[in-house]
């Protein structure tokens, strides 16, 4: 896959078109990536030990890798 975790990418298609962010995770089998600040989804959660109050939690959802374009690669050390 041409995208790796930590790369800076720009969304070129979909509802997040034009937004930029860094890649948080990559799913090679499904050809999907999670980009920071793009494709926000809301999920209702029950109260638990980690989240005592429960409520609506907002997080990033995955988008197809073909909808992103690499702007710059992260420095490899």
Structural write-up:
The protein has a five-stranded antiparallel β-sheet with strand order 6-3-2-1-7, with no helix packed on it. Strands 4-5 form a two-stranded antiparallel ribbon. The protein has a single domain, classed as SH3 type barrels, CATH 2.30.30. The model has no long low-confidence stretch (mean pLDDT 91). The chain has 77 residues and is mainly beta. The chain has strands spanning 8-11, 20-27, 32-35, 40-45, 55-60, 62-64, 68-72. Helix content is 0%, strand content 47%. The chain has no helices and seven strands.
Descriptive key words:
single chain, 77 residues, mainly beta, SH3 type barrels, five-stranded antiparallel beta sheet, two-stranded antiparallel ribbon, elongated, Ribosomal_uL24_C, Ribosomal_uL24_CS, Ribosomal_uL24, Large ribosomal subunit protein uL24
Radius of gyration: 14 Å
* Number of self-contained structural domains: 1
End-to-end separation? 20 Å
What global shape is seen? elongated
Q: What is the CATH third-level topology name? A: SH3 type barrels
Strand order of the largest sheet: 6-3-2-1-7
GO cellular component, one term: ribonucleoprotein complex
Function: One of two assembly initiator proteins, it binds directly to the 5'-end of the 23S rRNA, where it nucleates assembly of the 50S subunit.
Family: Belongs to the universal ribosomal protein uL24 family.
Pfam families: KOW, ribosomal_L24
Summarize the structure.
The protein has strands at 8-11, 20-27, 32-35, 40-45, 55-60, 62-64, 68-72.
